[in-house]
What does this fold into?
Amino acid sequence: MKKVCEECVSTKPESEALEARYAQQSHIYYKGSVCETDSIGHAEPPLARSPTELVVHAADGFIPLWRQDVILRWRFQERSLAIFKQPEAAKQYLRQILANGIMLWRDSVPIKFREVETGDTWDFEYVFNWQDKCIPNGGCTLASAFFPDGGRHELNVYPKLFEQSEQEQAETMAHETGHIFGLRHFFAKISEKRWRSEIFGDHAPFSIMNYGPNSFMTENDRKDLATLYRKAWSGELKEINGTPVQLVSPFSAFRPAFEQLAAMH
It folds into this structure.
């Protein structure tokens, strides 16, 4: 993508309007990088905190996981690609790094992703942010995503991502798709406990949902995610540590019904 950027990007816009848009707490992820999706936790957990636990999102009093056979429909945010001289070349590279991240999860991926080019039935936009977002004396955001729900969202990537190796780009996208599947950072319960999270299963001391040099995909990551969804879909897993599991559908699942209802009035 660095080559693509050099070939495709013209001058950067002078506007700084995007800075306020992503003004939120960030954490160091890997080699001075940052993940903004999960604003809960702490970048350097106390040594007493075990990194061997899978943590799921429960901020709304329940644990949202996708229903079975869900398809998340996505599209590029076209205006965010206006900076590229060759937008189609940039799109192809962006498609590939997303695919590489998803493929790291292998058969444990609980949902399908489908690109849509026309119509208004989409669940998230894939956005290229032209301006890096960095913390003074800290790290830079590589990407940010969202957790399962029925709304519309953005999957954001920043220029700093494309300065990383191909493997690190794939691992970053695997980390972000982990959030899309409903996973939190392993240390999510350390601070700001008003934002609930629950622990499910056990990991090896390394996890793609961890921070630092130990953050990479493991077989335990895949096994725990597959087990989580298999038990949730079968009805065997109804709660985790007292917090109920709620299966959710994406926005696109309801869009046809909304359009039909609108046509009746």
User: Anything to note?
Assistant: The longest strand covers residues 71-76. Helices lie at 2-8, 17-21, 87-103, 166-180, 219-234, 251-263. Residues 87-103 form the longest helix (17 residues). Confidence is low (pLDDT under 50) at residues 7-30, 39-53, 186-195.
